Amino acid sequence: MLRIALCDDEQEARDCLRFQLEKTMYEGDEEIVYEFTSGETALRWLKKHPGEIDLLFLDVEMKDLNGMKTAEEIRKFDKELLIVFVTGYSEYVFDGYRTGALDYVLKPAEEEQIRHILSRAREYFFMKRERNFVFRNQDGTFRMPLDKILYFYSDRRQIGVVTEMEEYFFYGKLSEVEEKTDGHFVRIHQRYLVNGDRVEYIGHDQVEICGKELPISRGMKDTAVAKLAECMLKGIR
Fold first, then answer.
1. Is 106 within a domain?
2. How far is residue 71's CA from residue 89's CA, in Å, rounded to a whole number?
């Protein structure tokens, strides 16, 4: 599913864009899930919900924090979010590409322009979807790039997802998580599944990832160390 958000401080502009999007989206597989009325509210929400939005239509000419500044702040914590700038002035277009924008829309949005942008977004997510891990908890649905995840661990019935920035939890089994990840994730313990590409050191009975030491179980040691060494030496990714 392609999850879309709109950010514009004018209700009429959001309604116009929504109308064009709804004519073009794939029913049942694409959805406008959030509307933000300012750059500040978008930033606060996106920081707390990484991966929950795939595509953001961001108005350039907003009061207080404008669209360009908002995009620059987003890129400090999220490099993956697709951003499309919405503007009434073509001179802003080239500035948008400094923040890795997918495209831009000139107001008022036209159906053909929206159709082209959604087509590009679909192609992008088709190519990268196998490199993501999707999970759901009480805060919503998260699509997390696998290369951002340091390791998973089990704690009773919950799974912890550890990144450099934050830690997330959802109910599940580590064995099921292992099946959904690629060959770069290595089971080192009954409780731990680590990203082999992020391991910095392999010791006698532990590994180190971003300064955190995790135990290697005796029963899994030989297989785990061999796989981890392969990741470290060959740089598979």
1. yes
2. 17
Place of tokens 């135990």: 215
Quickly list DSSP for the chain. -EEEEEE-S-HHHHHHHHHHHHHHSPTTTEEEEEEESSHHHHHHHHHHSTTS-SEEEEESS-SSS-HHHHHHHHTTT-SS-EEEEEES-GGGHHHHGGGT-SEEEESSP-HHHHHHHHHHHHHHHHHHGGGEEEEEETTEEEEEEGGGEEEEEEETTEEEEEESS-EEEEE--HHHHHHHS-TTEEE-SSSEEEEGGG--EE-SSEEEETTEEEEPPTTTHHHHHHHHHHHHHH---
**Which CATH number does the domain housing residue 226 bear?**
2.40.50.1020
Residues 101 and 117: their CA atoms lie apart, in Å, by 11
d(CA 92, CA 61): 10
Same domain, 72 and 172: no
Task: State pLDDT tens for residues 154-182.
Answer: 998 999 999 988 899 999 999 999 988 87
Q: Mean pLDDT lowest for which of 95-99, 128-132, 186-190?
A: 95-99
pTM here?
A: 0.61
CA 140 to chain centroid, in Å, comes to: 13
